[in-house]
């Protein structure tokens, strides 16, 4: 047993930088097809583009509330260039910047929601969005802080770069689960990467209140052993990397 474990553990430590880099690559590969551009014509005739992500195979989509507000018409563009029929707003949260849209579809790729109650400052994150309409742009950063507003609402402050048209972008943890939804930035001279996101548990609550069942949502779930033990998590990720390398030989 010792003969087997020693080289495996050595490889695990040697692949620490590769594992950190590979996380973002895997998250992008697995989730980019579920991230969409939301094309909006507002009631005043102006146009607007935001970001959203698919929650269910039959076309339930999450975005920021301000993306869908005062919309005369909306449709969805997927990362393969396909454009949906009309998207209809089916729910909006009153106290946070979240909304749900629905299109008629089947067998769509979709994301998995994580439990945002377990999010801690310093966590690595990956964001997939459409900044300046550059669809499926990948950025990374940290949870800079978990902030509680005076009204009790929680915000995630994030350091990942966010630009216009990225409202509604999913923020992923290291396990590839959506833990929040980007919606705002502090702009102005001297401000750098002061961005904010709505925790995913608010989204789970909104979907439940609207009568939707989300596959794989983890709101309120206890942290997994992998989430609480970084060494075990790293070993599992290293093994996944090895399997991917073997498959390419």
UniProtKB/TrEMBL annotation:
InterPro entries: Peptidase_S1_PA (IPR009003), Peptidase_S1_PA_chymotrypsin (IPR043504), Peptidase_S1C (IPR001940). Transmembrane segments: none annotated. Keywords: Signal. GO terms for molecular function: serine-type endopeptidase activity. Residues 1-20 form the signal peptide. GO terms for biological process: proteolysis. This is Serine protease. It comes from Candidatus Avelusimicrobium gallicola.
